Structure formats: C-alpha cells, structure tokens
Amino acid sequence: MGFFNAPELNHHEQVLFGQDEETGLKAIIAVHNTSLGPALGGCRVWNYESEDDALRDVLRLSEGMTYKSALAGLNLGGGKSVILGRVRDIGNEAAFRAFGRIVDSLGGRYVTAEDVNTTPQMMEWVHEETNYVAGLSPELGGSGDPSPFTAWGTFVGIKSSVNRAFGSDSLEGKTIAVQGLGHVGIYLVEHLSKAGAKIIVTDIKQDRINEMLKIKNVTAVAPDEIYDVEMDIFAPCALGSVVNDKTIDRLKCQVIAGAANNILADYDKHGKILMERGVLYAPDYAINAGGVINVYGEFEGYNEKRSYSRVNHIYEILQQIFTRSEAENIPTMDAADILAEERIRKIGRLKQMHRSGTRLFSKI
Ligand code: NAD
Fold it and tell me: In terms of domains, do 89 and 172 share one?
C-alpha cells in the first residue's frame, strides 16, 4: 500500500510503526485526530494476514474513535493501536513493556486501553512504562470494566429509540431480541427485564442462555432463529455485520439498537434500506459509547456517579441524530457523522485557538 495516498489515510495526523526485535513486537499506532483532546483508543492483538491488513484496520478503527468520542461530547480525539501476531507469542511482559515505551514516546498524544485480545494484566505491564493508559483496574486507580456502562448506555439508547419509534419510551410489554450474552448483553438483559420488557435471548454458548433464563420475562431461541422472531426491537450485542443482505429481509422489528460495533454490513446500502422501510437504526457508535464515556472520567478524576450521569446523555444525543435524519431525509448513520464532524469543527477550533495562544475576544 502506498502510504500517503491510501484511501484509509483519511486525514490521519500521525501513524507510528514500532518494533522490538528481542520480543518480536510489531505495533502500529494511528492517531487520527487530536482536535478535541488526546487520541484515546484501545490496543488490539490480531494475527493479520498481512501488514497492509493491519495498517488498514488500525486506520479505520482510529477514525471511528474520533467520531465516537466527538459525538459523545468528550474532550478526546481518536486513536487506536494494533499489535501484530498471536497472543500466545506476544502476550508477555517484555513485549507489552516494549509497547508501553512506544506509547510513551508520543508524550500523551495517544492514550491506550484494553481491546480485542488484550487483558487488564497486559495493560498493567504497559503501565509500568507509561502513564498514558486508561481503563486500568480500580486497584491501580483506573475505572475498571467498561461493560456495565456500555450496557447502561445501550439501555438508555434503546429507550430513546423506542420513544422516537412508538411515541413513548416505556418498554413495558415491548419484545426485545438480544443477540449475544457476553459482558454487555448480560447487564442489558437485567435492565430490560426490570423495565418490564419481554426479552428473547440467544448466544452460541448454552450456559450463558441458561443463566439468563433465570431472569423474569426471558425466553431463548437458537442463534440463527433470532432474526425471525416477532420483535419490536432487535439489540445485537455479539458481532458486527449482522444486518446484511441475508438477514435484512428477515427482521420484523421497528427499531435496531444494540451495543455491537459495525452492526450494518454496508452502512450506505443497509442504512438506506432500513430508512425506506421505516426501521429506526440507532447508530452503533452513538449507542455503545458508555464504555468510552466512563473511561473519559479518568482524565478529570474518576467518579462513578458522574460517569453514569454522562452516559445518560446518550438518550439526548440519539434524539438529535433522529431529528437531523428526519429533517434532512438521510440515514441515521449519516446524521451521526454530520453531528460528530460539526462538533470537531466548532469545539476543535476553540481548542486550537487556546493552544496557539490566540485570544477568542481580541479586545480583552
Ligand atoms: P463478549 O465477547 O463478552 O460477548 C459476546 C457474546 O456474543 C458472547 O457471549 C458470545 O458467545 C456471543 N456470540 C458470539 N457469536 C454469536 C452468534 N453468532 N450468535 C449469538 N451470540 C454470539 O463481548 P462484549 O464485551 O459483551 O461486547 C459485545 C459487543 O459490543 C461487541 O461487538 C463489542 O465490540 C461491542 N462493544 C462492547 C463494549 C464494551 O464495553 N464491552 C463497548 C463498545 C462496543
């Protein structure tokens, strides 16, 4: 891949390739945008087929973080890092401390965190070499597992979407299909049950289903049946791309609102189809921002209550997205992107002025 003309290099500020020959560490850190603040984004370990694939992935993911944090109203930019290889080869103290040194070399422009295939232990090793790590365990002064916050934000986002689609945000008697009972799904099911919803769950792990069946109003179906059930709301909380050419005609819901990343296989195509059919789609990066909102608390002195109150804003953010989408007759995902870009321009400009010493009011 040519670097500077690669389509994925979409206004990225900086890309850093780091390696440590002794441990075999090969890492890429992408800083997409720091207009609003330090570029926060997790570190993923993945055995990519090629280095080009790794670069593409980290560029795409870091751009996504810029939009997510901007839309959530946080003073954070977007970044991400990937470590190339298998956890069994690279998941050791020496390699992660070497990675910590690379993170530290950016002097805080990039702040790392856990992501796919990285663990609290690995982040503690990184922390031995740099302070620019977020989401550490509470014992180390961090905010810990973000999943309960992501689940709460998803619950709040479901209520907001239901309000727009049905005229009231009561979930009493509404049928919600939850796909995936992992870190986020289990908390979400509990919130939905307490709110009086009927919940249909699925997972590829039967023990997780059995656990959820103990909760009031919960029934279960096999993984592939979830697309066909009679439901008001579909809440994907497992994998990405679950709304695709094969499933979209099977879904009989009025709302799609879940925590999974990249729910629509093709944003343009499937976003338009859903809009034309009157199915309200809560953009994934807006509704699943609870985790990053919680981590953001660490930047200003962590306070759990404050985090929950910030996560509640997801309700209003989705209302703004839906209103914009209706007003301009565009898919909700496009409306979310526009709102995020507007905030980066407006608030990012103020921060730039501050940084360069420009006075906002020249007469003062
Ligand atoms: P997780 O890995 O803990 O749980 C995923 C669950 O989905 C597992 O129980 C797994 O068995 C199940 N699953 C896998 N394939 C399935 C299938 N085909 N059908 C049904 N179930 C299947 O992940 P998580 O932390 O709960 O996150 C869920 C989703 O939300 C992911 O897409 C993740 O990227 C996204 N997300 C999570 C967070 C967070 O704070 N954890 C934040 C933002 C976004």
Answer: no
| CB-ligand 1 contact for 180 (6 Å cutoff) | yes
Q: What are the helix and strand counts (H, E) for the chain?
A: 13, 12
**Quick check: CB of 223 below 6 Å from ligand 1?**
yes
Measure the CA–CA gap between 75 and 178, rounded to whole angstroms.
Answer: 32
**282: CA distance to ligand 1 center in Å?**
17
The pLDDT, as a whole number, for residue 348 is 83
The span from the CA of 233 to the CA of 18, in Å, is 44
Query: Which residue positions in the chain have pLDDT lower than 50?
Result: 356-364
pLDDT score at 362: 33
Domain containing 259 equals 147-337
Query: Which numbered atom of ligand 1 lies nearest the CA of 262?
Result: 32
Nearest to 131 by CA among 151, 113, 150, 153: 113
In tens, the pLDDT along 26-67 reads: 999 999 999 999 999 999 999 999 999 999 999 999 999 999
Residue 2 is predicted with a pLDDT of 63
Residue 70 lies in a domain: no
State in Å: Cα 182 to ligand 1 middle.
5
Nearest residue (by CA) to ligand 1, atom 43, is 288
Residues designated catalytic: 80
- Number of domains present in the structure of the chain: 2
Name the closest-CA residue to atom 9, ligand 1: 182
Q: Supply the residue whose CA is at minimum distance from atom 1 of ligand 1.
A: 182
Domain identity same for 191 and 329: yes
Which residue from 123, 106, 105 is spatially nearest to 43, judged by alpha carbons? 123
The pTM of the full predicted model, rounded to 2 decimals, is 0.93
